[in-house]
Amino acid sequence: MNNEKNLLIVILDTNPIWWGLQNSGSIQQEDQVPIHDNITFSDCLSGVMGFINAYKTMNQNNSVCLIAAHNTRAEYLYPAKSKLADNNQTPWERYEQISDIYESVKEGLKNLSQQHLENLSDAKEVKNKDNLSNDSMISSAMGLGLCFINRIQRKYIFAESVKYRFVVIKASDDSSNQYMSFMNMIFSAEKSNIIIDSCALLHDSSLLQQASNLTNGVYFRVPQLNGLLSYLLWLYLPDEQTRNMLVYPPKTDVDYRAACFCHHKLIDVGYVCSVCLSVFCTFTPICTTCNCNFRFDVNMLKKANSLKQGLMVNKLQYASKSKSDPINGSNKNLDSMDTGDINLNNSIEMIE
Fold first, then answer.
1. Domain ranges of the chain
2. Arithmetic mean of pLDDT, 14-25
3. Each residue's pLDDT tens digit, 191-205
4. What residues contact 237, with CB distance under 8 A and at least 6 apart?
5. Membrane spanning segments where (predicted)?
């Protein structure tokens, strides 16, 4: 039997607003086709728990961590907080029944629902559902998963030989507000050689595509929610070595465009702050992220213009000299002068 230890961190999108809109038929697929196989969150949770049960039964050295990505926060569902505080047991020493895992997940979701209702009661009465945030805290959930891995690596000697893997099940749309934090999580996972597998429900996610592509994971958009468990078992149950012997769907093109900090939209060309590296779609004299003032020296611009005019005069002089004495190798000097002028002109244009 394989004694290699594995840790699978499953991130489940538990956004109540998205699931409520999906059950009411307000959400359509990527190709604008109405959904005829609406499933409830309970059905999705049953599929995820079936996947976790199958993963744990494959090998006794397989351990699982389930994290919920809510619309306001991220929370551990399994192991429970009480089990996380237990320093005497490793994740591979908890031989719990699947029913115990169900109870832990059920209790965690219950606490999340109560906190969500308390937040709604504390706020003013919501009159328009469009004003509600439909974003899920995926980046926060990934941060919790990385902290869980870091806790194991710093505590146990054998942690370096453990293979870690993420499976992100995302339902809501991408949030450009989480772009920077999400990319930081991706780069941290890539540096630690952690695979990020992505499962998008109904809508493609460019952020998850980048995460899976950079970490050599699997990205797939589920076309039919009723077959969620089948897709999870087919694509995400095999480990990295077993995948080389299986046939997987072809990889799609990945959109690597960055999101601007001003309007939170994906852009092709933008302006980058030289201090905090914030990206903007339009020029601004003051960075809204770090409040850095971009000062422009008028004398520098005047000097650049005078240098440019001087270069034009030198070009004319060399051109007239080459015409009067074409035998003395003036053309070679002119070619070298043109090359230097091009580089200097580029520098002047950058200053302008």
1. 6-256, 257-295, 300-351
2. 83
3. 999 999 999 998 888
4. 51, 54, 55, 58
5. none
Say whether pTM exceeds 0.90.
Answer: no
Q: Is 32 exposed, middle or buried (0-12, 13-18, 19+ CB in 10 A)?
A: exposed
46: exposed, middle or buried (Cβ count in 10 Å: 0-12, 13-18, 19+): middle
Average pLDDT, the chain: 78
Please report where in the chains the tokens 């038929």 appear, as a residue.
Answer: 25
Q: Using an 8 Å Cβ cutoff, are 35 and 223 in contact?
A: no
The DSSP result for 231-251, as a single string, is: HIIIIISS-HHHHTTS--PPP
If pLDDT is split at 50, 70 and 90, which confidence band does 345 have? very low
CATH code at 6-256:
3.40.50.410
**pLDDT at 326 > cutoff 70:** no
179-191 and 138-155 helices, crossing angle to 10°:
30
**Measured distance CA(206)–CA(52) in Å, rounded:** 26
